[in-house]
Amino acid sequence: MRRAAPVVGCVAVAAGTVIVATHDPAAPGSRFPACAFHSATGLWCPGCGLTRGLHALLDGHPGAALSSNVFTPLAAVGIIWLLVAWVRSSWGRPAPRLPHGVERVLMIAGPALLLTYGVLRNIPAAPFRALAP
Q1: What is the rounded CA–CA span in Å between residue 31 and residue 131?
Q2: Backbone angles phi, psi at 98, to 5 degrees
Q3: pTM of structure
Q4: Looking at the 3D structure of the chain, how many domains does it have?
Q5: Distance CA 7, CA 2 (A)
Q6: Neighbours of 18 (CB within 10 A)
Q7: What is the pLDDT of residue 71?
Q8: Which residues, including other chains, have CB under 8 Å from residue 85's CB and lie 6 or more apart?
Q9: 41-84, pLDDT tens digit by residue?
Q10: Among the residues of 23-129, which ranges form H helices?
Q11: Which residues are CB-neighbours of 6 under 8 A, at least 6 positions away?
Q12: What is the DSSP letter of 25?
């Protein structure tokens, strides 16, 4: 069972990726769920636009992906990295590790960047309006 769980997780992520690649979340009548935070507050959370960004990235439009959410490429790479680490550790192999200094910076700067991005994308002034999806 220990080895099956990450395989099932990878299959689920692959299936979700195929769905996002073949169905435009920005299309009228899209069945993708709306962001609960945005629906409740009217504000953009740091994750708003990631599904649209992933669709654009998979469709070969990196500029559109970045305009939906600047963290789209990082989120995609991060998910792949975590899946590889999960599979390797479940199969008795060492998980890939980033250099210690990089891990430390990501643990401190990552949440600060996400929080700052979430605040800035909700400022209606001209330079920040471009951060909204």
Answers
A1: 24
A2: -80, 160
A3: 0.86
A4: 1
A5: 10
A6: 11
A7: 95
A8: 95, 96
A9: 999 999 999 999 999 999 999 999 999 999 999 999 999 999 99
A10: 36-41, 50-58, 62-68, 72-90, 100-120, 126-129
A11: 83, 86, 87, 90, 91
A12: T
Direct distance between the N- and C-terminal alpha carbons of the chain, in angstroms, rounded to an integer:
40
**Other Cβ atoms within 10 Å of 44 Cβ, number:** 21
Angle at alpha carbon of residue 89, lines to 97 and 91, rounded to 5°? 140
Which amino acid would we find at residue 101? G
90's tokens: 């479940």
48 C-beta neighbours (distance < 10 Å), count: 21
Place of tokens 């009548």: 29
Amino acid type, 4: A
Which amino acid is residue 65, in one-letter code?
A: A
Both structure tokens of 132:
């909204």
> In the chain, what is the greatest distance between 2 CA atoms, to the nearest angstrom?
53
Range(s) of the domain holding residue 106? 4-129
Please identify which residue in the block is written with the tokens 């009217």: 42
One-letter amino acid for residue 98 of the chain = L
CA angle 118, 124, 125 (to 5 degrees): 110
Report residue 93 as tokens: 């192999």
